[in-house]
Amino acid sequence: MPQLISVTDFAAYKELSVNIDDTTRINPYILQAQQFDLKPLVGEVFYKDIIDNPTSTENSLLLTGGAYAYQNKSYEFSGLKSALVYFAYARLLENQNINVTRFGVVFKNNADVSERVDEKTLQRLILQARNQARAYWDECEVFLNRQSTDFPLWSKAPITKPRINISAIG
Questions:
Q1: How far apart are alpha carbons 65 and 70 in whole angstroms?
Q2: Which of 7, 20, 107, 164 has minimal Cβ neighbours within 10 Å of its Cβ?
Q3: What is the pLDDT of residues 95-143, one digit of tens each?
Q4: Phi, psi values for residue 81, rounded to 5°
Q5: For the chain, what is the radius of gyration of the CA atoms?
Q6: Do residues 132 and 86 make contact, with C-beta atoms less than 8 angstroms apart?
Q7: DSSP helix/strand/coil, 10
């Protein structure tokens, strides 16, 4: 499956060590972010169009962000790439120290050089990355709704929450 972002897209948002092998350590999380975070947000048909036609005029703006007009006013948004970077980064944080070896699943530990981040701090960083991804997605969703005529495959059905009627207590 084609990737919509690469490790170079992270530089604008997050600093990554140059020692991280993007092929084995980052690319799988980019693909997971596309498949499991982005696809449910945009829908299967629109997702396929974005993957198949990332350089079309409309999809290119959606991916990279930029300025657009709506009701005679100018707006800017950051684009899907920014959301994907943070979705992938959250997935990377969740799995960075875990290695599957022929001896089982192990944590990579290099105590002589560095100190392991505690679980609470790591969970906070993962949550921050997910929240940032969601904020960037929210910008994209507003853009898509405002420019829906340019994106005929985009449709956002309203989420209906179940109603609970309480007739009596006790």
A1: 15
A2: 164
A3: 876 656 666 655 566 555 556 777 888 899 999 999 999 999 999 999 9
A4: -60, -40
A5: 20
A6: yes
A7: helix
